[in-house]
Amino acid sequence: MTTKITRINPEHLHATPGYHHITVVGAGRTAYLAGQCPLDRDGTLVGPGDLGAQIDQVVANALAALTAVAAAPEQVVRSVIYVVSAETSVLGDAWRQLTASPLAPAFTSASTLLGVAQLGYSGQLIEVDLTAALATLAGRSAAWRNNRV
Fold first, then answer.
1. 109: left (phi over 0), alpha (psi -120 to 50) or beta
2. Which segments of 55-125 are extended strands (E)?
3. Across all residues in the chain, what is the average pLDDT?
4. Number of domains into which the chain is organized
5. Domain span at 50
6. Mind listing the pLDDT tens digit for each residue in 2-53?
7. Per-residue pLDDT tens for 52-61?
């Protein structure tokens, strides 16, 4: 049995650029991913000063984290995107790159995009925080069981 996810845009709220105002998840399991940073496997910052390169690394890291719990971007029910910038155009560029990436379905649920002054790693320009609805325990895959801590 899989978890039921319903995405809603009430008619009395403004139109969105691809996300939904409300995401409802039927009872089931939830995975809360730590904020995915633009660090490679060795913990080295990828693309210092290059937001595009950092977004690519964050996408790769988020996909790896979702795979570890046998989830796909379509199962993401909440995202928060932090970008080091006060410029609306930079935030828009980050949104467009993310929604054109293999992680794009993750951003169709309830989503927040924030411009911030600083993130945790020196030179870090972006971080993406995801929450995913998972299949019930009976439906979990071998991939999840093998990666379970």
1. beta
2. 76-84, 110-116
3. 89
4. 1
5. 5-147
6. 668 888 888 888 888 888 888 888 768 888 899 999 999 999 999 999 999 9
7. 999 999 999 9
Q: Collect all residues with Cβ–Cβ distance below 8 Å to 100 and sequence separation of at least 6.
A: none
Residues comprising the chain, all counted: 149
CATH number at residue 101: 3.30.1330.40
| pLDDT score, position 20 | 85
Cα atoms found within 13 Å of the Cα of residue 54, Cβ hemisphere only: 25
CA distance 75 to 134: 7
What single string gives the DSSP state of each residue in 18-44? Answer: S--SEEEE-SSEEEEPPPB-SB-TTSP
Count CB-CB contacts under 10 A for residue 87.
10
